[in-house]
Each structure stands twice: as structure tokens, then as C-alpha cells.
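ping. complex inputs:
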Amino acid sequence: GQNIDQPTEMTATEGAIVQINCTYQTSGFNGLFWYQQHAGEAPTFLSYNVLDGLEEKGRFSSFLSRSKGYSYLLLKELQMKDSASYLCAVRVMTTDSWGKLQFGAGTQVVVTP
Amino acid sequence: DSGVTQTPKHLITATGQRVTLRCSPRSGDLSVYWYQQSLDQGLQFLIQYYNGEERAKGNILERFSAQQFPDLHSELNLSSLELGDSALYFCASSPRGGLLSGANVLTFGAGSRLTVL
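pong. complex structure:
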């Protein structure tokens, strides 16, 4: 099976930077995704990494190290609307090569004024 | 509006009952996925369909079943409901299925909140 770990909650101030770490232990790794989920709403896609390195998208960046089973999501210039749960998800190979996406429990980010 | 439509938005029922949740994928998407999200748990993958065929199965209980119809909409049937089945059930769709499809990002619907009393 897969084991995906991320912190339960993080608090940061408006305008600051927060880094959410995600570690995973899995066989058949085939990509890592980050989703944002506001309370009671649908998750929305933020970023995708399949090769090692940093992917930057505006205020959000995501990093992957496959050898370490590690990723982080970096949120810069935090805004109040960034208060949400951030879900790390790992896609793994299946025997029929179709793959499955497994989610971590999510990190609740609280942005304070 | 993500383009993925789920009905009903809210459903309250009693233990032992059966319910059906419906999902219409985004136009052009062939894959449909079902996830369960309980209060104290993350998104749990239940099942995936691609163009009408079951492609991957997760931790789906035997009391639950799903199907995808020729028009690509999908239904998740939950029977002999228990208190522990109370959760948000999300449907997601993607353009394709399979690992050779690059990012193949999932687009989620707004969810169906099921309360079992």
C-alpha cells in the first residue's frame, strides 16, 4: 500500500511564506499532485510533478525528490483566501498500467491577519 | 462551476436504507472516479471507470457498487447503510485514463453529503 504523510495543521501570517511537506512511501510511483480544498468544497488542482525539481506557478511552487520520497508545496505572499486544506496525492502504477491516485489526509493552513 | 455535476447535494437517510448518487462528468472527459471523504479521514479512492468499463478499484465496500453508462454519467449505489457511511462523496472526471496520459488532472464535483441517522 501507500503511506502519505503531511502535517495536520500550519498557521502563518498574511503576506508570509509557508512550506507544506509531504513524504510518501510507495512502489510504482508515477507522479505527485497538490490540490487545494476549502471547507465543504471540492478539491481543486494546484500542481503536478513527475520529475525531480521545482515547478513554479505564480505564488505557488511545488518541489519533488523521487529518491527521497519527498515533496513540498510553497505558498508565497499568503492571502486570507489561502486558508484551506492542501492535499498531497500520489499516483501509483497498477498491474494493468492504469494507475491510481491516493490522497494524504491534508494539511489545514490557517492564515491570520 | 467545475463542469462536473453531482446530485443530490445533500441526502439524509436512515440505517439499512439504499441511496444512489449521480455524477455527470465534464464534457469530453471519459474517466470518472468516486472518492469518499469522512470528517476524520482524507479522500479515500473508491472506484474508477473509463468509457463505461471499470478500470481501478480502491477501498470500496461490497455494499457499494457503481457503474458508468453509455452517456458517460456514473452512479454510485450505497446499500445497507450504516452510521459510518456518513461522508462527503466526491465524483471526479479526467480527459483520459491510464499512466501514459501525462498529468491527466482530476476535476472534482461539488460532492454529495450523505448523512445516515
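Chain A touches chain B through 27 residues (CB under 8 Å).
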